[in-house]
């Protein structure tokens, strides 16, 4: 984008009349005899008064007289930036840096503009250029910290945020961001310390206090008992305390996800003691204790997915990068086949249905969570939706399928032999069975998440009596505790 400037001759001609009719400009002309200087000051004064449009016009007039003035371009960019006109701000600031590239603050402004425009790569270039000129520019290190945080590069984010503090950066947002990054790295003690610094700012609000209290709960659980942790939470949160069942559920999730098994068990036992009917907690505790479990129990699945249905897609797809339906679909599409009768086993909210629908004549979805099925039903893409446990459905089915898809469902089964035998029974010879699994080195085992993981050779051995392998690819399934969960995409063909 180019910034249009008035013609210098027109500005020079109009300037005496402007000075006569505007007392502020008249006074400034007295102080600054050069017209471009007087106009520059006048533009800044208008901008400070919030008169954005007149300020932009006057600054452009000044630039018409002095188009090589880096400071003037800088001030025009700032005025555009404050007005939310980021593209114009970027163009003006690039002109400023072309006139004088040795401006650390100028690069910082350009990086902030690029960041506001959503161009993270350009913003990174700007922040790094600023730091090259002034290694102690704390705002530039802060900007890089925020950028890395946004990219989920938490170790890098912590490095830059700490550099910002070491260079004199001291504001609440800096400590909050550092605390959050440390938390997502599983360093709970350091996260608490950063949030404590944030909480000392007079501007600290209820959100920060609650976050600190929650981190303190998690961190206390790691080194003490759950009751002490809950008490620590209450002391910090005070009137800002949230529902303790919700708070401890979140804390349990993080402790388990970050591998603090003993602490998660302590908190899980505390939660189950408070609420013995909680099927989700009962199962997750059993999983953490590594009890022998053949598959996730129905009461857990129903309670968990009924409670999750509303936020499932936002959380799994948007926040955790879950793309298994798309990835399985791509493998099926590669075969170029069309199918007469498709089964979406554990269909959930029906994420696979828009992808499968064009390749199947008939599509049935099965799930034991009614709330998930309601979401699937709203898509109007299934010919039939059945509320049933997968194994029960397969045992009772009297039709044959030439396509079975189980996206993120096999992970709720440990021992796959009974499931595969049941799937094989309802499949046409030559039919395809597509699914994903999380992987371990040998056999299968339940993970602290309550999901199961299987070894690839175990899967192939269990499948061998009924299926041949068409595709087997390693992939990232989703994020867990900010880390990618690795697994496999598998397509089998019924013999
Ligand atoms: C992670 S979700 C995946 C949903 C969907 N396939 C997708 O890719 O978005 C797992 C779904 O499988 C269902 N599920 C798990 N085990 C099941 C079982 N034994 N019988 C029926 N449904 C089951 C759950 O209720 C849940 O809706």
Automatic annotation (TrEMBL):
Gene3D superfamilies: Tetratricopeptide repeat domain, Vaccinia Virus protein VP39. GO terms for biological process: methylation. Residues 343-435 form the Methyltransferase type domain. CDD domains: AdoMet_MTases. Keywords: Methyltransferase, S-adenosyl-L-methionine, TPR repeat, Transferase. InterPro entries: Methyltransf_11, SAM-dependent_MTases_sf, TPR-like_helical_dom_sf, TPR_rpt. GO terms for molecular function: S-adenosylmethionine-dependent methyltransferase activity. TPR repeats lie at residues 36-69, 70-103. Pfam families: Methyltransf_11, TPR_16. Transmembrane segments: none annotated. This is Putative TPR repeat methyltransferase. It comes from Methylovirgula ligni. The lineage of its organism: Bacteria, Pseudomonadati, Pseudomonadota, Alphaproteobacteria, Hyphomicrobiales.
């Amino acid at each position: 984008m180019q910034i249009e400037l008035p013609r210098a001759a027109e500005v020079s001609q109009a300037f005496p009349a402007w000075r006569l009719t505007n007392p502020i400009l008249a006074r400034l002309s007295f102080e600054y005899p050069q017209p471009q200087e007087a106009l520059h000051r006048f533009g800044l004064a208008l901008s400070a008064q919030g008169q954005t449009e007149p300020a932009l016009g006057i600054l452009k007039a000044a630039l018409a007289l002095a188009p090589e003035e880096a400071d003037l371009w800088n001030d025009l960019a700032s005025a555009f930036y404050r007005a939310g006109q980021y593209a114009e701000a970027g163009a003006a600031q690039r002109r400023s840096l072309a006139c004088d590239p040795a401006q650390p603050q100028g690069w910082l402004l350009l990086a902030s503009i690029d960041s506001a425009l959503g161009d993270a790569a350009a913003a990174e270039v700007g922040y790094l250029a600023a730091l090259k000129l002034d290694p102690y520019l704390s705002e530039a290190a802060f900007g890089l910290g925020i950028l890395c945080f946004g990219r989920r590069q938490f170790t890098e984010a912590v490095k830059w945020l700490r550099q910002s503090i070491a260079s004199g950066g001291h504001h609440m947002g800096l400590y909050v961001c550092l605390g959050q990054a440390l938390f997502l790295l599983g360093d709970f003690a350091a996260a608490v310390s950063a949030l404590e610094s944030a909480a000392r700012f007079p501007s600290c609000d209820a959100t920060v206090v609650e976050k600190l209290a929650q981190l303190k709960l998690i961190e206390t659980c790691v080194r003490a008992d759950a009751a002490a942790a809950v008490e620590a939470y209450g002391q910090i949160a005070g009137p800002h305390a949230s529902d303790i069942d919700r708070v401890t559920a979140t804390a349990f999730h993080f402790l388990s996800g970050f591998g603090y098994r003993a602490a998660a068990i302590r908190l899980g036992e505390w939660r189950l003691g408070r609420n013995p009917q909680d099927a989700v907690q009962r199962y997750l505790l059993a999983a953490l204790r590594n009890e022998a479990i053949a598959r996730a129990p129905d009461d857990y699945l129903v309670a968990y997915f009924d409670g999750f249905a509303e936020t499932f897609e936002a959380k799994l797809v948007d926040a955790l990068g879950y793309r298994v339906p798309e990835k399985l679909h791509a493998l099926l599409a590669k075969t170029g086949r069309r199918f007469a009768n498709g089964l979406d086993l554990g269909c959930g909210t029906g994420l696979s249905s828009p992808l499968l629908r064009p390749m199947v004549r008939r599509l049935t979805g099965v799930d034991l969570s009614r709330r998930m099925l309601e979401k699937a039903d709203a898509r109007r893409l299934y010919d039939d939706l059945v509320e049933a446990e997968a194994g029960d459905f397969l045992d009772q089915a009297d039709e044959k399928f030439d396509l079975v898809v189980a996206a993120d469902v096999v992970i709720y089964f440990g021992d796959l032999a009974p499931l595969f035998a049941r799937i094989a029974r309802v499949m046409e010879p030559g039919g395809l069975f597509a699914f994903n699994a999380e992987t371990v080195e040998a056999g299968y085992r339940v993970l602290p998440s309550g999901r199961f993981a299987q070894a690839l050779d175990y899967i192939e051995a269990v499948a061998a009596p009924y299926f041949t392998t068409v595709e087997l690819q390693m992939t990232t399934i989703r994020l867990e505790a900010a880390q990618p969960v690795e697994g496999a995409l598998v397509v089998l063909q019924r013999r």
